[in-house]
Amino acid sequence: MRGMLRFSSRKIILYIAAAIMVGLVTCYAVISASNSTEIQSDKGTLDLSQVQVSERPIKLQGEWEFYWHELLSPNDIHDRIASDGNPNRWINLPNSWLGYRLDGQQLSGTGFATFRVMIQLSEQDRHERLALKMPSIFHAYKLWVNGEPLAEVGVVGQDKSSMTPRLATKFVYFHPENNTVELVIQVSNFHHKRGGITKFIELGGSDVLTVRTHLKIAGEIFITASLMVIGLYHLLLFILRRKDRAPLFFGLFALLLGIRSLLVGELLLTQLWPNFPWEIQFKIEYLTLCSSGYIITRYYISIFANYVSRWFRLGSRIVTGLLCLIVVAAPAIIYTHVLSVIGVVVVLHMLYLMVGLVQSAVQRKEGALIFLLASMVTLVTVINDFLYFNEWSSIGNTSPLGLLIFTVAQMFLLSSRFTKTATNEERIARELQEANDKLTEMNMNLEQTVQERTHALSVAHDNLRISYDRLLLSEQGRKKLLSYITHDLRLPLSSMLGYVEAVQDGVKPERNEQYLRYIRDNTIRVNRMIEELSYLSHLETGQVMFQMEPIPVAQFLRQFYDQYELVVRDTGLEFVLDLGDSEDPGSESLVAEIDMQRLDQALFNIVSNAMKFTARGGAVRIALAVNEVKDRRYANICVEDTGTGIPPEHLEHIFERHYRYEQPGAEKRVEGSGLGLAICREIVQVHGGTVRAESDGKTGAAFYISIPCIRREEG
């Protein structure tokens, strides 16, 4: 399939040129054939004495008598001819009276008139049963044949209120009484921009003309049914598989084309439903035409997504919406004036898409060439239809056939896409089966694999033991370093400045070494404070990157406890971890989005404070609980100590930077930067949680960290 749809750039250009040539030659042949046998009436008289219309129907065209703003019966016309002589006004039909010059002025599309023509028949035809195939005439008419009223569509009137518009094709059968046939037609229009007889009236034998018309109707029914079935089929495909939007827009496009084919040509809708309101019929026809360009653009985007600019999409949506709004809100006399604009918009859509299709075909995109060739055929038929409905083309309604060709081509394209998808699914299924076979083979050798992995784990355990021994040695060095770092900062910056001045002034030279040592210690304290301030400011401005991942909270706390148990116990404190029911096998674990390194730092800041303010022999306890607020679960981490406590009036300030509580009467002053809890609060807030403290000021303090949980998806 892919090989069928890939061609070189030169071949693409040749195919495009061939399609254009075929289209031009076909149009020329059709126009030449249609013009070669035309016989035209002259000043209201049509001579068919040398033509046997009973076997070879003809289209009536040429000059007809024209009575503007008069609704005359055949008798009225006979009386006027008898009194005034032959008429002196003729109009070429089929044609609208819009723009017809009468008494130095051009007529508008609205009004009423009477048309008359005299037809001379051959001797063979005067004994045959003949028929007239009447097209749709804007917007109501009444027909007399040899003085006998034989057809009326709508109600002819002299103003908008007295007439009833209707569109329908009709057969009129009659037997000529002699070799002369008089046709008189009254026409009125107050609802469309073009009034008059704008399409061919056909005259011929009743049997031949009926068979020909029925064949044409059968062809239109076939096209309409095909388009609707194709449209509904692809809409069902989209309902079953909504990920791919191409069947949706293609189905809508085909369905709209099927609906429109009911409203043009032989007007199948009025034949199936004679009383269908003409205004709704007209609006549906124009709406399908307005929206077709936008829908085919969306279909194109769903297949070739990168070849339509954002501005064209926006412009297409706006213009299509405005045109549809005009059609829905305005009467037909107004929105029929924008038919040319609608045609230009639709053609511009197709031309723009064809430029993108040429690019796609040159780049050998799958299906682009078929899409391009079908679009060219459709473009030719659509342009011909606009020319035909504006009386600039003699070829009839060709868009249904062109659009059917386009639709079939798109079915081929979509079918190839679905076939490719199915082939890929089969390939994936085959690969999965092969992988499953390999997995089965691996399971058969599972015992040997387990032994190998056990041996590897044993080696890893020995290496871990060696690393642990090394860690104990480094831990002793770390404790010594930690004792220096956490040593009481005895003097503020002002004291350090005083020592510097004392050294400079030589107040007590014998104590200079001691002063320098004090200066060094205070420098370390200030340096640490600067680092913490820098980190806190980065937290507050969001410059610290957090690596969030779903972690069971109980697992995190267990790791934290294991990590800091020795640290806490070495200070002479008891360290307790209470996970409640979270570690029970049947309980649902609490899972939260956590940056373990940052949250570890925040929790240790709280534990470090508890260690500072708790005397030897006391205890630090970490507990985990769950809380639900408005259908949201929260993991509550509590850190309790048995220290000196915090007065209630200080609780709301302890998370502020540089805020420190000095307990009155304490034997020794606990030094610190006052930044640890502020850093803790910032880290917890990034996790979407809160932190608070409780204490009665006498029997220790409790800090609570609350973090929102996520629901773990079921496996």
**Which overall shape is indicated by the principal axes computed on the Cα atoms?**
elongated
**Category by helix and strand content:** alpha+beta
Contiguous uncertain segments of 5+ residues: 1-10, 23-37, 473-492
Q: Over the alpha carbons, how many angstroms does the gyration radius reach?
A: 47 Å
The whole-number mean of residue pLDDT values reads 76
Instruction: Count helical runs.
Output: 17
User: Count of DSSP E strands?
Assistant: 22
Q: Give the strand content.
A: 15-25%
Largest sheet: 11 strands, mixed
Terminal CA distance: 40 Å
Helix content: 40-55%
Question: What's the gist of this structure?
Answer:
A hairpin with a 5-residue loop joins strand 21 and strand 22.
Write the layout of secondary structure elements.
Layout: H1 9-36, E1 40-41, E2 45-48, E3 58-68, H2 74-84, E4 90-93, E5 95-96, E6 101-102, E7 105-106, E8 111-121, E9 130-134, E10 140-145, E11 148-153, E12 170-174, E13 180-189, E14 196-197, E15 201-205, H3 206-240, H4 246-261, H5 268-272, H6 278-303, H7 310-329, H8 332-335, H9 339-362, H10 368-389, H11 399-444, H12 446-485, H13 493-505, H14 512-540, E16 549-552, H15 553-570, E17 574-578, E18 591-594, H16 596-612, E19 619-629, E20 632-641, H17 676-686, E21 690-695, E22 701-708
Parallel strand pairs: 1-3, 2-8, 17-19
Antiparallel strand pairs: 3-4, 3-8, 3-15, 5-14, 6-7, 8-13, 9-12, 9-15, 10-11, 10-13, 16-18, 19-20, 20-22, 21-22
Helix pairs in contact: 1-10, 3-4, 3-11, 4-6, 4-11, 6-7, 6-9, 9-10, 10-11, 13-14, 14-17, 15-16, 16-17
